[in-house]
Amino acid sequence: MVIYTKFNHARRKAFRLVTTIEKEGDTFYLYKKSISKKSDRFLLSLIDKYKRLNKYKLPFKVIEPTQTKKGIRFDYLEGKSFDGLLFESILTGNKESIKKVFLDYKDLVSKIPLSNFFATKEFEKYFGKTGKTKEECICIGCIDLILENIFIGKNRDFMLIDYEWTFSSPVPFKYILFRSVTNAYCKYSSYNIGKILPVKEIFDMFNISPKEEKQFLRYEYKFQSFANIDEAMVDFKLYLKNYKQLGKNNTVTFFDQKQQEITMLIKKVEQKDETIRLLNKTLLERNNEIVLMRSSRAWKIRNIVVRIKRKILT
């Protein structure tokens, strides 16, 4: 049974995937599926990207893909992501708590193997021209290292749940930080994150200079132009204008409220289903214990004793 479906219409056909959450028996799974033969290659590349990521000693686990007839299947994870922690902090309006989420995230990402690299031709193909100086880069080339894609386990172990956009080329470390910050500020603009904590303070905290900020904006615009259809893109001047409003919306829209309510309800349903599953499992175990007990020699002797007592009493 399909519980949730997400489809990005803005992507070019070669990259269009459908993401679903499905319940099979008592278990939830996440699926990624191609919608046409044009995106089959991109879908199947997840297997190779998983293998490539696991060649490195990473500070987190990478969720394992399983190829099925439906598509690529992943375990559905319970728990919170960095993004979930950020949202909780935004709702409380706690500036220091928001900072801590970003600092904890940076601390994790900084543990990925780093090296100084000149930009490669592959990098410039997807992200545009760079300067001729070396940049500190993460070796794994995964730009999906954003807050919502990293889950936090009970023992502070971490899991990367999405890595569609992983390249063989190294990617600048600060660009990864920039991308995660701007993604979060864009996502939560309607919750006034920019008023609680101006994005410039985060960039200062991450030592991202105004010059680097402009360069990373160009990287991101070039990448979005590569991944998305022309109709979904705006010209660079309007892109910059929209960027200047990052995190500055004043109200939470009705749609945002309802979307959050739906997300919370889905989560509650999943938790209730898990509780029911555990209760059913316990009930089955108890029934099995009763069956075994009643078939035992001791139980048979007990029944004989009970019948004898009844005859004596009558």
Can you put this structure into words, describing what you see?
This protein is of the alpha+beta class and 314 residues long. It has three domains: 76 residues; 172 residues; 45 residues. Helices cover 50% and strands 15% of the residues. The chain contains eleven helices and twelve strands. It has a five-stranded antiparallel beta sheet, with helices on one face. Strand 5 and strand 6 form a beta hairpin. Helix 2 packs antiparallel against helix 3. About 2% of the residues have low confidence.
* Unreliable residue stretches: 250-255
Order of strands across the main sheet:
1-2-3-6-5
Question: Strand share of the residues?
Answer: 15-25%
Mean pLDDT: 87
Number of domains: 3
| H/E element sequence | EEEHEEEEHHEHEEEEHHHHHHH
Radius of gyration, CA atoms, in whole angstroms = 26 Å
Structural class: alpha+beta
Shape: elongated
Largest sheet: 5 strands, antiparallel
Total count of helical runs of at least 4 residues = 11
Number of strands: 12
- End-to-end Cα distance: 59 Å
Helix coverage percent = 40-55%
Topology:
Elements lengths: L1 E6 L9 E8 L2 E8 L5 H14 L7 E2 L3 E2 L4 E4 L4 E2 H11 L2 H15 L4 E4 L3 H7 L7 E4 L11 E3 L5 E3 L10 E2 H15 L5 H4 L2 H7 L4 H18 L8 H8 L10 H41 L2 H17 L1
Parallel strand pairs: 4-11
Antiparallel strand pairs: 1-2, 2-3, 3-6, 5-6, 7-10, 8-9, 9-12, 10-11
